[in-house]
Amino acid sequence: MSDPTTDDGEPRFRRRSKTWEGGAVKWLFLACALVSILTTVGILVSLVINAWGFFTEIPIWDYLFGTRWSPILKPRDYGVLPLVSGTLLVTLIGALVAVPIGLASAIFLSEYAPDRLRRIIKPVLEILGGIPTVVYGYFALTWVTPQIQKILPDLLVFNALSAGLVLGLMIIPMVSSLSEDAMLAVPRSLKQAAYALGATRLEVSISIVVPAALSGVIAACIIGISRAIGETMLVTIAAGATPKLTLNPLESIQTMTAYIVQLSLGETPHGSLEFNTIFAVGLLLFFMTLVMNVGGHYVVRRWGLRYE
After folding, report:
1. pLDDT of the residue at 16
2. Which of 7, 8, 77, 105 has its CA at a distance of 20 to 30 angstroms from the CA of residue 300?
């Protein structure tokens, strides 16, 4: 006896099996998406709950706009601006290194490099991204800083300049790899049309490929800079532990993540005001990263090119 069939001749049990499999896969993907959302919400709730004890004692205005950070040593001050300035200074130096070199590398790999050369260069770049950050920190401290001191003899051993330069080298693979993937996804017809109109390879790369891949390029830069802001071991080793409100890259500074490491390794009593500063700093770091992502989405919506 033959199995019942649908109007198109397919057995009904097979149609029901496909429907069940499709529904199961849909719910599986939804569960995976919810895990990331719930994780983010859980982190935010944890930070807010633990930082609440800090803000009940320290006014948020004094915290955000104070110019001296000394939560452990007397006289105690809780102005976070020195940590913010140190974080932004190192990140800015890293971005000035990583973004131009990363984008240039991506353009070369996607538009200029032969396939054989691309298969060699890209794995080498990705290997740089897999090196432990503590290695980068000691590389900055023991090699980069002495080399810079040959040019700038007054440079301190712990400084923001060498930490920022090596931080930029660390995030180049991330910016380059993600940007290259976005550029390779640009429709070939756009480039062929530009070549047909007489455009050079450089003009096609700058005027066609980069604007068409703008959303992916911006996402790569945001991810790279967010990685730089949240980097811990490199800046802890190379930049120093001196919270100072300065824009001078030759001085020793302290970043937000370095402070969290410093206090976490100490003997600060759990639940004390000093201990809660960890969560206050972490909460501010979370919102700084959030603002970067929101700004990136705005830029993509405002200037990104869309192709139907």
Report:
1. 59
2. 105
Q: Which residue has the tokens 């201990």?
A: 275
Cβ partners under 8 Å of residue 157, min gap 6: 141, 145
Q: What is the model's pLDDT at position 268?
A: 73
Instruction: Categorize the per-residue pLDDT at 9 as very low, low, confident or very high, splitting at 50, 70 and 90.
Output: low
- Measured CA to CA, the distance from residue 267 to residue 94 in angstroms comes to 32
- First CA to last CA across the chain, in angstroms? 50
Q: Which residues are CB-contacts of 187 (< 8 A; sequence separation ≥ 6)?
A: 212, 307
Residue with tokens 């102005």: 79
pLDDT tens digits for 11-46? Answer: 555 555 656 666 777 888 888 889 988 998 888 898
Fill in the DSSP letter of residue 270. T
Q: Of 3.30.565.10, 1.10.3720.10, 3.40.50.720, 2.60.120.10, which CATH number belongs to 69-303?
A: 1.10.3720.10
Model's pTM, two decimal places?
Answer: 0.85
Contact between 224 and 98 (Cβ < 8 Å)? yes
Let me know: does 184 contact 277? Beta carbons within 8 Å. no
Which tens digit of pLDDT belongs to each residue from 196-219?
888 888 888 888 888 888 888 988
Measured in degrees and rounded to the nearest 5, phi and psi for residue 91 equal -65, -40
Paired strand residues for 78:
69
Q: Which of 102, 112, 114, 99 is nearest to 202 (CA)?
A: 112
Rg (CA), the chain: 25
Query: What angle separates helix 256-264 from helix 273-303, to the nearest 10 degrees?
Result: 150
> For residues 261 and 291, what is the distance between their CA atoms, to the nearest angstrom?
24
- Cβ–Cβ under 8 Å, residues 160 and 87: no
